[in-house]
Structures are given as structure tokens and as C-alpha cells.
Amino acid sequence: MMLRTAVLTVVLTLLAAAPAPAATLSNWPPTSFAGGFGEPIPFTSPGTLPYMGQTFTAPDGTLDSLRFMMQGESPSLSNVGPTVFRLLITEFSGPHDGQLFRPQTTCNGQPGVCFESGDLVVPLGAAEHEFEVALGGLSLVPGQDYFFVFDAWVSRDGTGSDIGVGTRSFPGVAGTPRSNAVSSSDTSATRDEHFAEFWNVTVTGDIAYVLTYTPVPEPGSGVLCAAGLVALAARRRARSR
User: Do the domain assignments include residue 240?
Assistant: First the structure.
């Protein structure tokens, strides 16, 4: 009886420790591409947007990866090299669809954005490029709104670039696409100063993405069954005494 109880206890422990299956928050696949994202340069129109992103509501779990699609543009006066950018995840102030929207460079009361990837590259030329960026089990506040943003300003090299960001027609998932242009007078501004500027809702359609996360584990039927077996074994043992 002691052996049976020990085995059932081990089973219960293993079932309780089993990781929850991954889940997704999806707005996929892209149905069009919003052009004009990349690095603007002084001798061309500043219409190229170095910041483009989408608000989202954090699920109840840890974030594993973000998948998205970019489309390169053909060479032109404002597009003469690869587009180098980073993925950021930030908190923000103001309503996600209002004029007071502002990304923030603090997260959970600490300085810095919630997440920043290394450099990501879309080569020059008209072709589609899919990215899946590992988020490393990022923990955010469930139910709170956040902003993921593609930042082509942080890695700027003075080379004009212009690509399209994969989008889906409205209405997509909950959230709002936002973008920010940088004029020639803002070239020496800091990230905080850029974030404090007015962010437009100019992107046609929601940005297409797949956010993969690991939900907070809940007691499953297997765990409950094992618990019942352990309780039954204990009851039988008590009766045999």
C-alpha cells in the first residue's frame, strides 16, 4: 500500500509540473503591406516612418515569441540599402486610439522598455521576409495594454530604406496601429523625445502578427484524477488498519 501511494504521489507531482501547451494571440496571415517604414534621410521626403507598431492586450501567461512579415521595396532614391530595425515592447500612456497616446521607456516601474531585440534586417529588393522573434518568456501584467513597435531609428546608418509591414484589413484583433515620423529637426532627439511626440493612426489595417505565449497553468483533469486516486488509496489504507 505504501508503494502504491508513493507511485500515485509521483504521478501527481509529474502531472502538476507538466508545462501548459502554448497558446497564440493571432492576427494572421497578412493580406496587404503598409509601405513607408524604414530609415528616412535628409535629401528625400521625411515621409518614411522609422516607427510603426500595434497595441495589444497582454494575455495571462509568459510571452514566447512574436511572428510578423515584412516586404522589401524595389531600389529608389529613398531606398538604397537594407532596412535595419529592432522590435520593442513598451508600456504607453493615454488611450491606445487617442491623441494622447505615448510609448514609454519605463516598464513595471523600472527604466527601459519591456523588451528590445537585436538588429533585424530586411535586404534591399522586393521580397517577403518572415520574422519570429524569441521573447524569452517575457512576463507582462495580464489584461494590461502594451505596444509592440518596429524601430528603424535606433540602428540608423544614414542609408535610406523603405519596406512594407504586413497588415490585415480592419477590424482585426483588439488594438490600434500607430506610427511616428521624424523630421530633420528631430535627428538628434532621444528615444524619450521621439516617444513624447504625436503618434499617428495612419497605417491602413491592423498589423498582422502571431503572439505565442505559455498560459498560466491550471489544474487539469489528469491532476484531479491523480489526486482522487491518492485520496482513495489513503482511505483504503485507513480502513485496513
Answer: no
